[in-house]
Design goal:
The structure is a single chain. The protein is an alpha/beta fold and 508 residues long. It contains 15 helices and 20 strands. Strand 17 and strand 18 (446-459) form a beta hairpin. The longest helix has 23 residues, at 290-312. Bound molecules: xanthosine-5'-monophosphate (XMP). Xanthosine-5'-monophosphate (XMP) binds at residues 294, 342-344, 386, 388-390, 429, 463, 500, 504-506.
């Protein structure tokens, strides 16, 4: 049985972060909704510890999820966070009150007593609060261990039973000692901190062998890190019974299709590259609406993939590079709308596969990257920035034409190589887009009337919000000079200084 911490979700906005922080301690964890099947789940998972997350409700709401008090007598260490702390207090007979004023943002925490949870932590530190109800009395035989100005019981515990609770959010970076607090909880759970990627590879390959046996599997390979890592894992497990289909829709970055092919040529797997650029261009002819473009690209993609699957025949398994944030966002009921809008076509409904295999569904992006490294994938593929499924189709504003694709590919290539040369770090994503604007310029002694390229670079950790990156002006200037000199059809280069929101990262 794998050593793990179970995170029981009450709908908190930071639950992914809690899981991240636990895994940073080399401890495996999973997030599951708290519901009536909780005891079955605990039996199945045998966790070393349980974390109860925050959530938007009040223990007094009719609809609120209450904690069964039996949970606290299982002998498993428990940490309640925010709503999780209130639910713990309430179910064990403490007092939770609707607060007149909520406490949101940073607060100064003072420790009141020694606690294993706060071992090695300064007596005063800043924590992140986000709650309206508050705990005004800890349950019997529990002691308050920390307070803020507005929250007399900011932490409480019954150390003898390994029950701990904090009103603040240790998983958020603004809680200065948060990492240490969660690491202390990992110690309280007596976890051996041995969750590593090499053990993940071994275990997963064995499971895949077992599951797929000598049947065939098909993978839609985009050249992005997730589907690449999924493919290589699968090929380790089933060798030539895996076929990877790489659809080159003609909307990739300069040289990208060849780069992907070159990488996968060296693996012992069946790799099929379908050059479908013309087909996509035809389908996009005359289309200017961004959502329509997305839909067309998604649909064409599926059709190409389907026809390849038919050619291979008798394929039982479809491999997808789904990762944990996708599972959490769609499975636990949040952010799903934004995601499905972004995904290019859901493959499984269209093709007759018996089962979908998602070997990375419990990993975060950085863990997937680590697996990729251990599998020997090249660093330029592993640390690649995200690239949208519809590709340059949504970086060309208005109608997509062969000429415009060429322009944006060349401009983007120059921009990316200058950024690489300048070794600018911390960029979440950066690219060139082709505006639909033509303007007047002068080159040599002649008038030009050409397109403007827009450069974008953002800093972001979650891609839901982003800040425009302050690229040094000399670099922007150099990129602009190179683009107008080297790319035919462009006479102006603009830099996008807008954050998200109100803009988005992509232009369409
Ligand atoms: P936005 O433009 O919404 O993008 O700020 C956020 C992140 O999602 C990527 N993106 C997409 N990815 N299909 C995808 O696979 C899409 O249709 C799509 N649209 C945006 C974008 O590149 C950024 O990383």
């Amino acid at each position: 049985m794998k050593e793990m911490i179970l995170i029981l979700d009450f709908g908190g906005q930071y639950n992914q972060l809690i899981a991240r922080r636990i895994r940073e301690n080399n401890v495996y964890c999973e997030i599951h909704n708290y519901n009536e099947k909780v005891f079955e789940l605990i039996k199945e998972k045998s966790p070393h510890g349980i974390i109860l997350t925050g959530g938007p409700q009040s223990v007094y709401d009719d609809q609120s999820i209450q904690c069964d008090k039996k949970l606290f007598s299982l002998g498993i260490p428990i940490l309640g966070i925010c709503y999780g702390a209130q639910a713990m207090a309430y179910s064990l007979g403490g007092r939770v009150e609707m607060a007149g004023v909520g406490e949101y943002g940073k607060a100064d925490l003072t420790l009141l007593a020694d606690s294993k949870l706060f071992h090695g932590i300064k007596r005063n530190s800043v924590v992140w609060m986000s709650h309206s109800d508050k705990i005004t009395m800890a349950p019997d035989n529990f002691k308050a261990t920390a307070a803020t100005k507005d929250c007399q019981i900011a932490a409480f515990e019954k150390a003898g039973k390994n029950l701990y609770a904090v009103q603040f959010h240790p998983e958020v970076v603004h809680t200065v000692e948060g990492k240490k607090i969660l690491s202390n909880f990992v110690d309280i759970c007596k976890c051996s901190r041995d969750w590593k990627m090499d053990s993940f590879i071994e275990e997963t390959v064995a499971q895949l062998k077992n599951k797929i046996g000598d049947k065939k599997a098909l993978c839609a390979l985009s050249g992005g890190v997730d589907s690449s890592v999924a493919s290589v894992l699968l090929s380790k497990a089933i060798g030539k019974n895996l076929t990877c289909v790489f659809v080159d829709h003609g909307l990739l970055r300069k040289n990208e299709a060849d780069e992907v092919e070159n990488i996968f040529k060296h693996y012992d797997l069946n790799f099929i590259r379908v050059n479908a650029g013309e087909r996509f261009l035809n389908a996009l002819e005359g289309v200017t609406d961004p959502e329509r473009k997305r839909k067309i690209i998604g649909e064409e993609f599926i059709r190409v993939f389907e026809s390849e699957a038919k050619k291979i025949g008798a394929v039982d398994f479809l491999v997808q590079g789904t990762i944990y944030p996708d599972v959490i966002e769609s499975g636990l009921g949040k952010s799903a709308v934004i995601k499905s809008h972004h995904n290019v076509g859901g493959l499984p409904d269209y093709v007759d596969f018996k089962e979908i295999v998602e070997p990375l569904r419990l990993l975060f992006k950085d863990e997937v990257r680590e697996v990729g490294r251990q599998l020997g994938l090249p660093e330029n593929l592993i640390s690649r920035q995200p690239f949208p499924g519809p590709g340059l189709g949504i970086r060309i504003i208005g109608e997509v034409t062969a000429e415009k694709i060429k322009i944006v590919q060349e401009a983007d290539f120059i921009y990316r190589s200058e950024i690489a040369k300048a070794q600018i770090e911390n960029l979440g994503q950066y690219f060139a887009a082709l505006t639909n604007m033509k303007s007047v310029g002068v080159m040599g002694d002649g008038r030009t009337y050409d397109y403007a390229i827009a450069l974008r670079a953002v800093m972001t950790s979650d891609f839901m919000t982003a800040e425009a990156a302050p690229i040094p002006f000399e670099i922007l200037n150099k990129v602009a000079n190179r683009i107008v000199n080297e790319v035919k059809g462009v006479n102006r280069v603009l830099y996008d200084c807008t954050s998200k929101p109100p803009a988005t990262i992509e232009f369409e």
